[in-house]
Write a structure and sequence with these properties.
This protein has about 450 residues and is of the alpha+beta class. Helix content is about 55%, strand content about 10%.
Amino acid sequence: MIKWIQFFSNWARRDGTATRVSSFGRSAGKFLNLDSGRHGMRLKPVLRRDRSVAPYLLSVLILVSTSFPGVARESVSPNQDWDTLWGQKEIPILVSSGGRTSESFLLGVQGAELELRLADTQSVNERVFIPLNDIQEFILEFAIPEELMEARNALRQDGPEAEVLDLMRPYVWPLVKYLPVPEEHFNIHPLVDEYLGGLIEAGHFDEAYAMVLEIPLTRVTPNYVQHTLNLSERLVEAGSHTRALALLGIVPLTNDDLELHNLLMQYAGQLRSAGNLDEALILYDRIRSLSGNPYCTKAILWTAYCNVRLNRVESARLFLEEAGELESRDPDFSLRQLVLARIGLLDEDFHEAMEQVSQGVIFSRIGYAWIPELLYTNGLCYESLGNPETARTVYDQLILFFPSNPWADQGRERLEALDSEIGGQKSESGMREQNAAE
């Protein structure tokens, strides 16, 4: 078998000289046909020199199998630098182009190029760089070792057991940096995909988080974005809002990705309901920055709402202006009225607050997420206007229709407060009558 890497030796014979594969003809076969000479020499010496021999001395081995040289069984630490510990190993691969196949080692990604060391060259210093833009001329193959194949099968059949993930870890992590190579040109994607899914399913959030941060989500297949969203959801459930927001901040977002918009709105709502208003604002800002999407107005109104809750009334008014006037039949109309009523309460303009919240209640529907708070705010307005009995009726309705909602708990607290006030008034009245009788 004629090996195309023989060509590299002729042009990269001197130690310390890297070689770049570039300027391809119409096919890799033309590039590899040195006999014709019509296509010229396609290897250009790189001006920079790489004399960093030490990191690669330990891996100067004759490739006799497709397993990683020196795979170790290090212990897992929850706060370790995952990529440094697990992702810096050379990867033995087969490189095919123009009908010819050669053995090589992947060393890393330098900018927009793959860095390789050829298996049958005499010097460990010799490098070959393949631009990612020209990767369509090549097929890279990672021959899966038997141990890894068995662990992968166990993951599929039995789920992400700890010992299975431990076996896969030293093989999978070094592959992550090469995910920008399209899956039709490199067979590593299913391995990383299944391992990352296993980490999330098993609750290994530290490692999964670290791996996602190493993946260029704008240059990989959509399933990695889905993994990122799944991990974000699990992190929110676990109370790790900072990490969840960091992940959502790197998820590619476009105007036409309505499913992702909806998911981000849900996450923002969870953060808002949990009182993490500044964090929710980060997500609302991403959504409202994409003008024309159906969630834009709602994101602007929730941004105004969060600012009211944070006592940033003037900022809230600016966002209400950005949202514009809404007709009463608009689904977001009652949300806008809730924000206006909240502003009225903060300004102690109780009549204005009552007018706004009343319109919101009249033109709302039972399925809107903000209806419980709208009713609660209506009760507050009645209290503020000196009408506690009507407020009591509103709180009772809130508890009746939304018994498990957090705003129902707030309503119960207000009922207890009203009962205490009435009890105190009766006590004072009784004391006055007793004193008068004496």
